[in-house]
Structures are given as structure tokens and as C-alpha cells.
Design goal:
Elements: E1 13-20, H1 36-53, E2 56-59, E3 62-65, E4 69-76, E5 80-89, H2 90-99, H3 115-129, E6 142-147, H4 156-162, E7 166-167, E8 170-171, E9 173-178, H5 199-202, H6 206-214, H7 220-228, E10 242-244, H8 250-257, H9 264-269
Parallel strand pairs: 1-4, 1-6, 6-9, 9-10
Antiparallel strand pairs: 2-3, 4-5, 7-8
Helix pairs in contact: 1-2, 1-8, 3-4
Length: 270
């Protein structure tokens, strides 16, 4: 069964983040006083700091960071831009973010929304990375796309190519975080989040349907961990890696278990 590898220093994980900074991201998120791009900044911080904590250990009275995760960040509007460098170790990535005032410099200032071009950049990067000796035998890379969905290009064909790439442990996972709440799925917290199983739940927006369709199904080993650990206890089989912003720590929770640790029972046994 694929998706069984645990992230370690010897077999580290790679996360590619695709952050929409197009003009529409300067609009306020409906129902809030915050602009949409600020949600992208926050989600990046939640995810990166969670992965850093997963790479941090105590050795005697010393804190040591062992690079179990690497990150590549593309910020895009009309044209995708690489932030800092490819496959940065997680400590360097978080340090650069915090030194910049917990910011990536987003502002909804990059024009139109060419999601296809951004995913193409991720594809070209991951096409090489899955054969890199650091990642070839690791838990598969995750491409996490955060957007309000208003792309003027169709990213689905590129997403399909991304999901065909693989390490020895399984295919690349494509996750989409919708910076909005306008879906047909009713829930309030992670405890009652059932997951998006059907496209009709992600709609009615055509942009949302596109994001849902390009999202990978949640691997069963990952779903079992999420349910057993009580993070998403009602997550249904067949759910997609598609989320919205109704619970701010949701994406952090997902990455807390993707390949990083086993279930609570496994940890207690150790």
C-alpha cells in the first residue's frame, strides 16, 4: 500500500506551495475585514512553522533542527515567481519568513491569475525532484495551492500531469485551499468536517469545481490517521484534498500527519 513512509532526515519530505497574489487577492474575504492575500500569508506561516516543529528535537538541553522537510514557494499572478530558492530546508525557510515580519511580501499585486503557469512551474520542479536522491524514496511531495479560484487559465491538465509523478511511496499529492467559504458543504469545525467527496459539495462556483476536480483523493492511510487522531474524526472515505478557510488551522493539521508521524496508537506504542 502506498503512502506508508514516515518523514525522516534520511527520507525528507518536499512541500511545494503555490500562492495566488493576483489582483483579486487584494479584495476582502467576504464576512471579514482581512484581505484575501493575508490568509495566504497566515496559511503559509501555519504550515511552515508546523513542519519546523516536526523537525525539531531536544538533545540534552540543546534544541536541534534536523531538516526533515524542504519547501519551494511560487507566488503567482500573471507570471509565477520563485520565492528565495528551490527546496529550501525548513529552518531556512521559516527564518526568512519571520525575519521579513512573518510575510512573503504578498499584496494582491501581480495582475491576472494564471494558475496553469504556476502549476507548470511546480510540475517542472517536481519532475526533477522525484528523481533526486533526497526525495526519490520518501513520502511523495505535496503541491499545496492557495487561491480564491479566479483563474483565467485552466490548470486541470497540468494538475493531472503533476499527479502522475511519483516517488517509490506513491504519487505526488495535489491539495487546494480555497480562500473563501462559499461552498455547499455545511460544517463548523474540524470535528464535524466530513471532507469534500462530491463536486456538488464544492460548488456552486465553477472555479471551486475546478479546484475540487484537480485535488488528489486523500490516501486511506492518511485519512485513517486524521480520523484516529481526532483531527477530522468524521472525514469520509473518498474525500479530496480540498479545503476552505472556515477553520484556520485545517491545512496545518493536514500536514501534521502527511508522512510525518503514525497514528496516536503507533506513537504510544513507542
Amino acid at each position: 500500500m502506498p503512502y506508508e513512509k514516515k518523514i525522516s532526515r534520511a527520507e525528507p519530505g518536499l512541500v511545494v506551495m503555490l500562492l495566488d497574489d493576483s489582483g483579486s487577492m487584494a479584495d476582502n474575504l467576504p464576512g471579514t475585514s482581512d484581505r484575501k492575500y493575508l490568509w495566504n500569508e497566515r496559511y503559509f506561516g501555519y504550515v511552515a512553522k508546523e513542519l519546523l516543529s516536526r523537525s525539531t528535537e531536544m538533545s540534552g538541553d540543546q534544541i536541534r533542527v534536523k531538516p526533515r522537510y524542504f519547501m519551494t514557494i511560487y507566488i503567482y499572478g500573471s507570471v509565477p515567481q520563485l520565492w528565495k530558492g528551490e527546496a529550501m530546508d525548513i529552518q531556512s525557510c521559516v527564518e526568512a519568513y519571520t525575519q521579513a515580519g512573518n510575510s512573503l511580501g504578498l499584496g494582491g499585486k501581480l495582475g491576472g491569475t494564471d494558475a496553469a503557469a504556476a502549476l507548470q512551474k511546480a510540475y517542472e520542479h517536481l519532475q526533477t525532484a522525484v528523481n533526486d536522491k533526497r526525495f526519490a524514496d520518501s513520502s511523495p511531495p505535496v503541491a499545496l495551492h492557495l487561491t480564491d479560484g479566479m483563474s483565467h487559465t485552466d490548470p486541470q491538465p497540468v494538475a493531472a500531469k503533476l499527479k502522475q509523478l511519483s516517488t517509490t511511496d506513491g504519487n505526488v499529492l495535489v491539495a487546494n485551499g480555497y480562500i473563501g467559504t462559499e461552498t455547499s458543504l455545511n460544517y463548523r469545525t474540524p470535528e464535524d468536517f466530513p471532507g469534500y467527496v462530491d463536486a456538488s459539495e464544492a460548488g456552486p462556483s465553477e472555479d471551486n469545481l475546478c479546484l475540487f476536480e484537480m485535488s488528489s483523493p486523500v490516501p486511506e492511510s492518511m485519512r485513517a490517521n486524521l480520523v484516529e487522531d481526532g483531527i477530522f474524526p468524521r472525514l469520509r472515505e473518498g474525500s479530496r484534498l480540498f479545503f476552505d478557510v472556515r477553520t484556520k488551522a485545517m491545512l496545518k493539521h493536514v500536514f501534521a500527519v502527511v508522512g510525518s508521524l503514525g497514528s496516536r496508537a503507533d506513537r504510544l506504542a513507542k
